[in-house]
Each structure stands twice: as C-alpha cells, then as structure tokens.
Amino acid sequence: MELPKTPGDRVLTVDSVSCTFSVRRGLFGKRKSLKALDTVNLDIRKGEVLALVGESGCGKTTLSRTIMGLQQPDTGSVSLGQHEISTLPAGQRARMIQPIFQDPYSSLNPRKTIGDIIGRPLVVNRIGSKSEQLAKVHKMMEHVGLPRRVFNSYPDQLSGGQRQRAAIGRALIMDPEIVICDEPTSALDVSVQAQILNLLLDLRDELDLTYLFVTHDLSVVQHMADRVAVMYLGEIVECGDRSQVLSNPKHPYTSALLDSALSISPDLSVPAPGLSGEFPNPMNRPSGCPFHPRCPMAEQQCREEVPKPEIIDTTFVKCWKARTFSHQAKHH
Ligand SMILES: Nc1ncnc2c1ncn2[C@@H]1O[C@H](COP(=O)(O)OP(=O)(O)OP(=O)(O)O)[C@@H](O)[C@H]1O
Ligand SMILES: [Mg+2]
Known about the structure:
By secondary structure, the chain is an alpha/beta fold. Helices cover 33% and strands 23% of the residues. The chain has a single domain (10-267, 280-330), classed as P-loop containing nucleotide triphosphate hydrolases (Rossmann fold), CATH 3.40.50.300.
C-alpha cells in the first residue's frame, strides 16, 4: 500500500470524532452517558512528533485507542493516508500503527525471551524465513540499543530501561508508519527517561517514523514535540507548533497548564496557581466553553455558547477570549 512519503504530508487524519461511553453508577444505578471525545479534529504529518497533553481523564487514551481502531467512534472517522481505519483489516492496521505503553513491566510476557518477544510479530504474521526473522531481530536489537547477550534473557532479568527498549523493538519490528506512545517514560527511573526519549527521536530519523506522543510532562513536550495538541474534557482546545504553544499560549487552559507545570513543588499540598478548581466530572459537562468554570477570563458568552474554533498565528484555538488573551500575554 502506498502512503504519502514527502515530509509534511498528512499520514493520519482524525475527522470530527466523538465518542460516548455509557456508565452505570453503582451496581443498580441508572446508566449515564459520558462524552469522552467531542468532535475531535486532528492531523498528523509525516515524520513529526505530535504531543497530546491534558489532565488525567481528558480523553487522551480514548483518542489513541480510536486512532488505533480499538475504539469505535459514535460519529466521525479516522483515516490513515487514503484509507479509513475502520475498513482496514486488523492485521494491516496493526502493521501500520503500533503502540508503546507506559509500563514495560506488564506489557512484556514474562515467560518469553527478549528475542522471542521482539520477533513474535514476524512469526504471527509469517514474515520471512526463520533465518530472516532472526537477522531482523538482531538488527532491531541493535537499533534499540540492546546488547546481543540479552537475546535469551527473560524480561525480569532486564533493567526497566532495557525492558522499554525491548517493547520499542517489538513495536517497530513490523516497520510501522505511526507509533503511538502513551506516557512511554513515566514509569521509568528519571535517569533513564532521557535516554529512552533520545532513542525514540533517533529511531524516528533512522526508521522514518511519525509519533503521537501522549504525556503529562511538559518538559517531555519541550524536548520531543514538533507540534502540541492540548485536550480538555474530550476536546482539542489548542493545537499548534511547539514553540508557539509553549511560549505564546492562546488558550487560558494551556497557559494554566504551563503555570502549574512550572510551579510543581515537592510539597504537593500547595495548589498550582495556574489551575484552580478540580477537573470537572465529564458526566456533567459545563455549558458553553467546557473550561469556563475554571477560567479567569470567563464571561457570559463563555458560559452560554460553545466557542467557535479559529486559527490565530497558525495556532488552532477554541476560546471566545483567545484574541484578547494572547494579545495580553504578549504584552505582559
Ligand atoms: N471503557 C470505558 N468505559 C467508560 N468510561 C470510560 C472508558 N474509558 C474511558 N472512560 C472515561 O472517559 C474519560 C477519558 O478517559 P481516558 O482514559 O481517555 O483519559 P486520559 O486522558 O487517558 O487519562 P489519563 O491521563 O489518566 O490516562 C474518563 O472520564 C474515563 O473515565
Ligand atoms: Mg490515559
């Protein structure tokens, strides 16, 4: 299958995707619907790292699962190149989009050797002869920086960083187009986090990969991302180039996230000054702009009307006050 190869071409398009879960409260409670994704539009371009950030529960994993075809949207569609994801057979989909998860401890089978784990997708999909498969696994181990001697080791004989390298090798062995990384370093020791992040960046260049990178950590965004999408209550509220979004945020929520990241202190009882109030219950979505109850800029229009998306200086933003807000921030 031919997909666009020129840099900057879209490889993945998320078009007006909404996703609702039906949730029962308590054993005999009534079912209520929970809108986890609300009309999400997003495109990912060949070779870029697109970071997806937002508070816990905002819908990042649901969006990743929808992109991988593991979660069926209520409305809207996801396309990979020219192909709508839901029309691709599962095997082909998995070959083109691969996930790397947070926890390399639980994602690797403890009873299989590292060589078997990395080569398994080749065996399952019957790709190449035995000796070709072996050669591929050795080459991949080299790519991800695993010494040859761990080929016959079991996951519990490896360090956390090595385990994540093995998980990365398994994800890349089928030569995917897009890799979805859901907090791939947050379970790792701080000292190895940077190594794994740099490895992922090197692999992107060596293997021509495109990443969707889910993270809470804005220093990771700063280090990795070309573009950033900010999610709030199932909506993308701001999306643009990393430098624009981080240095000149257009949405008060992005700005608050940045403030709270800068102020994280060892004493977690100190509330972050940027974000007051709790993350709202997604079953009781606020009217108008979903961020209005926590927003210092909110006015009547924000409480009543859903913001119209607009583009300001190449950044996508959904906020009635975006123009005033970013102007003020610039001249602060
Ligand atoms: N299978 C499900 N059934 C019901 N509700 C779900 C389901 N999966 C997710 N949700 C709800 O959808 C919302 C979004 O969840 P999601 O896991 O996508 O958030 P997230 O941004 O990945 O959070 P985190 O940063 O904690 O991983 C949450 O309110 C969650 O409770
Ligand atoms: Mg998640």
